[in-house]
Each structure stands twice: as structure tokens, then as C-alpha cells.
Amino acid sequence: MSRACRHPLRQVPHNPTWLTCDIHRADFPHLENCLGHGTQGCTTLCANGTPTDEQLLGMAVELLGKGHTAHGVDTPCGAVPRDLARALAPLINQADGGRGLPEVLRADLVAVARVLIGRNA
Known about the structure:
Strand order of the largest sheet: 1-2-3
Radius of gyration: 15 Å
Shape: elongated
Mean pLDDT: 76
Helix content: 25-40%
Number of domains: 2
Strand content: 15-25%
Number of strands: 6
Distance between the termini: 27 Å
Largest sheet: 3 strands, antiparallel
Oligomer: single chain
């Protein structure tokens, strides 16, 4: 089975037989030859791999660019105020994936990206 979505997927806590894309808000079953739900092989094979810091930052920018609610950007873990989104987007959306930023700032942005897309682990 091929997937249209190329984002790193995460396991759905209440149903380990499904994976979800936070950006597309879509669910996908594990592949038939899954090596075991939640294992490293499963992450590589079924979940499009573990996201790198650059991928996390890119997904956060993509999420911030999605539709707005009356009070901010709609995210998996709540609303991000528009002022915060406007302040973060230029920092996160660097051509080099944020590698040119000071390491402390980059680490903070990756932490923010994790919260924005519901990947606190």
C-alpha cells in the first residue's frame, strides 16, 4: 500500500493499529508487513520515519499556515494566538531549516513545533 501523505506519522494512543498525520488530519493503517506496532521498524516502515528537527519545524509552519479560527490557528492541541503565529513563522520558516539560528533558539523553536503538532515525545 502506498501513502499519499509523506509527513512523518504518529501512533494513535487509543488505537495502535492506526497512524495519523497531524497536518492532513488523516488516519492510515499500518502496512501489512509491519514489524510490530510502535517498534523502530514500524516507525521506519509504516510511519514514514522519525521526524528530524527540520521536518518538525516545516510541519509546524505548514500547520500555522492552515485555516484560522476566530481566536487563532486551529492545532491538534488547541488554538495558537495569531500574534504568536506571526512571530514564530518567520523564525521557523528559514531557508536552511533553522540551522543558521543560535542553537538555544533553534532548540526552543523545535520544542514549540513539537507542541504545535502534538508531538511532545
